[in-house]
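Why show two proteins at once? Because comparison is the fastest way to build intuition. When a single record is shown, students tend to memorize it. When two are placed side by side, the eye starts asking what differs. So, the first record is below.
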Amino acid sequence: MKRYDGNPRDEHQWNEALICMTQPHQSEFSRPVTSNQAGIHPRLAQNLQRHLNTEFQRPVAPHSKAAYQELATALGDSQRPIVLDSFCGTGMSTKRLAEQHNNAAVIGLDKSAHRLTKHADTSDKYLLLRAECEPFWQLLVTANIKVAHHYLLYPNPWPKSSQLKRRVHGHPAFPLLARLGGSVEMRSNWQIFAEEFALASKIIGFTGKLDRLEISEPWTLFEKKYSERAQDLWCFRGIFSS
């Protein structure tokens, strides 16, 4: 594998470098979240309503388009239910989900090729794709493809109050989750983030419940670290109902 030397000669290397520069270091995610925000963001509902009133349209990167074409080819005329594992990281959770959903097309999405290459297993039970999740959701919605189950396990919390729009439920693409349909499950080690996600999900049409999460067998590397450090974990499970 080539090493990135800081010179953006190659588009893929440049994209990977940007990810590394803009994302917190992995060790930061395994620590308890600290924030200057004491409760649900006061502009959450206003921000989300603005997104509901506009159509999310963003240019789709070539690698995300290629990932969608790979999915379309893999699905063919199959009528199997789709299980989507967004922000899947190394794909550990995708493998677990494939074990639980034997008859489904299980798809793991992550924008980092570096993280995906850490997945050592090979299997025809699931598909790991390098794609930016939000534009990929847009492609699915445009093709009128529905999702049976959608998992978002420990997405980046973006804990600063000023970073609301970077959080998954503050992103302009968040209403697309409702158009994908099915059930949704989100896990987080930050209670405020989980409460915001639960509220935002209700606003866009999901009926569900937020609970503390007890871990018997971790689904992700982050979940393993969080549970080993006795951090409180939260899980929202909902079903699209309108």
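Second record. Ask yourself what differs from the first in the token line.
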Amino acid sequence: MNKRLLLAACLWLIAAVSTSWGQAQPQRLLFAIRGFGSSTNPAPTQALTFINLSTGEVRDSVAAIGPIANVIRVRNNRLYIVNSGANFNGTANSLQIINIADIVNNVNPLPITTVRIPDGRNPYDLIFLNDNKAYITNFLDSTITIFNAANNTLSGSIRIVPGQQNGFIANNKLYVSRSVNQRTFVPDSTVFVINTAVDTVLRQIRVRPNPQEIKPDLQGRLHVVCTGFFSARSPDSLGFVSVINPATDQVVGTLAVGGNPSGVVINSQGIGILSNGTRYNTSTLALVTPPAVGGTLGFGDTLFVVRTTPGGNRRLVLFNARTLDSLTQIQLGSTQPYLSLTPVTLRPDGVASTERSTERPTRFELAQNYPNPFNPSTIIAYTLPVASEVSLKVFDILGREVATLVSGRQAAGRYQVPFTATGLSSGMYFYRLQAGSFVETKKMMLVK
């Protein structure tokens, strides 16, 4: 038999075995908060939106949430929705907890566990230390709330100051941004560091005004997005990124970025894409051109942008975070805004993970590409539990190699690699990951 035909047959057999379970493949999901909510109505006025990126299915309202839902977090195969309450004084505060499998399987009525949070706290973010313990930041209260996820109870608090917003765990420490003095509404410039072993404040780190989201770069340094002032009275109105070394808790770099950003996506090349579209090199802290689309959210090598159609409805556009190429578009069902877009990978065994997780992978894994079918670009994701010599290649139906996407040694971690089928015809293709002794092949469909 011709060697090329033999290779094609082997690729087909390997891919067929790896996908022989049909629907028992990992699913790429996206959840969002639809609508801003009401500051005066304590009833849930927002909706949880579900999008299956693997199939294109959209369910615009799977549950009522709110009254003012801030963020969605993922842990223990569940969604945790942080509700800040109404009336600007933190009434009707809660966590809403929903099993992801129940949403995917369209269970009706959808079971929702609600954990009440005392009035006056105005919870903002939820940061997990592990499966059983998490921290809730509070904008109006002078404490951080400790949440026991094993029994869904509030188990303690850490005294700090009001005005808390986002948080991040690194080196067994909790970093919390304080964006504003809650009493004067003047932007603050502080990141608090909490010792998670004893739940006490270790120190305060001075950054630029109005710190918001905190994200790690590929070197483990923390990038604090500082929105700055919204008036031209100060140079700090431009917005900054402050970089913290978590080993020393010292600010090791600052970059003026402009445009009052509030969040950042850091791709696998180490390029930061801010919510206002500004791009920068996270290693050198140098600006990069061209900018990305403004209003960008995302994780890893995928950007999510919600745009308004001529008819007033919203459309979700996925972009490659490395090349800025458009990957796919999905029509949404409402004229309302979509917030806190949260991607989730759901394995066939029901285990859910999100790219926001900072835990080290425990096994080799090659994910199904998404979107699939695709035209002309798609994303291939994989995980490495240990440093490995990695080869990621694409073959056509005859077993001919058409692209080498990765070739070289990579550290342990999660990776997302874009593939653009420029010059290729429609049809089935195979992609094969080899990392040390681990080898896996999957198939994908190009439809032009």
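One difference worth noting in the second protein: The domain at 3-22+358-446 is CATH 2.60.40.1930 (Immunoglobulin-like).
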